[in-house]
């Protein structure tokens, strides 16, 4: 436990020493809420959105963005770099299993995602009166499902790419279409029906839907939950099968 | 006491047989060298001893345990090639982190002083020179106060001064009772440090002896050159069984032969009251032994 804490703390320090990824993970999602919330028309109830305001939707989208940053952008690059540089190989010769380092890293990323999400929710609540989920347990469930689904994909990417650079590139290539379906540019509520249907089956589309459903007080729909669990199962299995330590 | 026992080790990667048949034992307190050309199977052998590879055949015992036994990690420090650290981790953070992995860690401040890293504690890994990274790597292999240290190409990338400093350090570590397995392709290093050597080629042990024993076992010619104080008749020298050829280069004589050639030549000269000036003996080195055993130079 002492070693795990020390590893997690070390990973946290290393994460904060990469100012660009730290900014995009920890501050950018909340900043996005501030920027969008400062547009007056986004604070008006919209008939297209069934009476909701644009900013109401973007709080959920910003949470999905946080998880996408952590799981799809940062995780593959960091893990693949660790393997490429032989960090995992060196660790394998010590009493500490490389698996412990991976767990420490996931703990650190989980912590970062929680901090960033709390910031998004706080900004949404305090600045723009976005109602926090009535059903907090549903929100936690949606958050965990989305985190698990995206992390499984991120770890799978880390497992199959040859280098840290490749991990970074693949992560970026995945990030944009996945975030498109999560509604970063156009909320899914105003997407054409075909795109909505597609989005329901993408990890971040399903995740964003589950998060927004939870924000309005309902449990994640069976479809979203099933899709996310499916991503965890398939990519988790593939990641475990293909992960190499050196 | 035997601390490492390798018997008929065999390891293939796909169709490539990296280690065909390697056996040796390492005794407590010695510096045991593993020498061989690139691709001979040295690294695979030490990786198998370190528990990073599962052999396809043969047995390995380290301190009486299977290399896969995780309790061995407390007692065996390993410095491998191609193992790095995160770019932004500082020297001190790396040492403190790795020290926390072990039940009885060494004093990392003393280690860094001995390794000349004392003024680099706040430097991130990426900003270290190749030699400094190498020395940090050695420090991390020793930080757990291991009973056995396995060091793969320990001085590669070091300048000559740093290499000699590292040799002193290794001798100091051995003096404290640590058994050392050293993979190297530097003959000078092997000759200076190793008590015994296994020469590995094409996945097999082709020789196992002390450095002096390896050199003595060579069936090579010796050459003695000198300038005689008075003319010498070739026949006098050739009359001795040790002498095979006599050449003349201006005022110099070169005698080629085997066995105790020097004694043969000096006794002929003494009987004839001739003094040899500028006497030079070309002796075989570990390098020569290596070339004869493997058909290649270690520098290739």
Description:
- The complex is a heterodimer of chains A (246) and B (300).
- In chain A, helix 6 packs antiparallel against helix 9.
- Chain A is globular and about 60 Å long.
- Chain A is mostly helical and 246 residues long.
- The model of chain A has no long low-confidence stretch (mean pLDDT 90).
- Chain A contains 10 helices and no strands.
- Chain B is α/β, with parallel strands linked by helices.
- Among the domains of chain B are: 2-75 and 147-216, 3-Layer(aba) Sandwich (Rossmann fold); 222-283, 2-Layer Sandwich (Alpha-Beta Plaits).
- Helix content of chain B is 30%, strand content 30%.
- Chain B has helices spanning 42-49, 91-99, 108-114, 130-142, 160-175, 187-193, 211-216, 234-238, 261-271, 286-294, and strands at 2-13, 16-27, 31-35, 57-62, 76-79, 148-152, 179-184, 196-201, 204-209, 222-228, 243-249, 252-257, 276-282.
- In chain B, a hairpin with a 2-residue loop joins strand 8 (196-201) and strand 9.
- The interface between A and B is medium-sized, with 23 and 26 residues.
Number of helices of chain A: 10
Q: Report the top-level CATH class of one domain in chain B.
A: Alpha Beta
Second rung of CATH, namely the architecture of one domain in chain B: 3-Layer(aba) Sandwich
Quaternary structure classification: heterodimer
Total number of β-strand segments of chain B? 13
The general outline of chain B is elongated
Strand content of chain B: 25-35%
Instruction: Sketch the major β-sheet of chain B.
Output: 6 strands, mixed
Query: Total number of helical segments of chain B?
Result: 10
Query: Which percent range fits the helix content of chain B?
Result: 25-40%
CATH superfamily of one domain in chain B: P-loop containing nucleotide triphosphate hydrolases
- pLDDT under 50 segments of chain A (min length 5)? none
- What is the residue-averaged pLDDT of chain B? 88
Question: Largest protein interface?
Answer: A-B, 23 and 26 residues
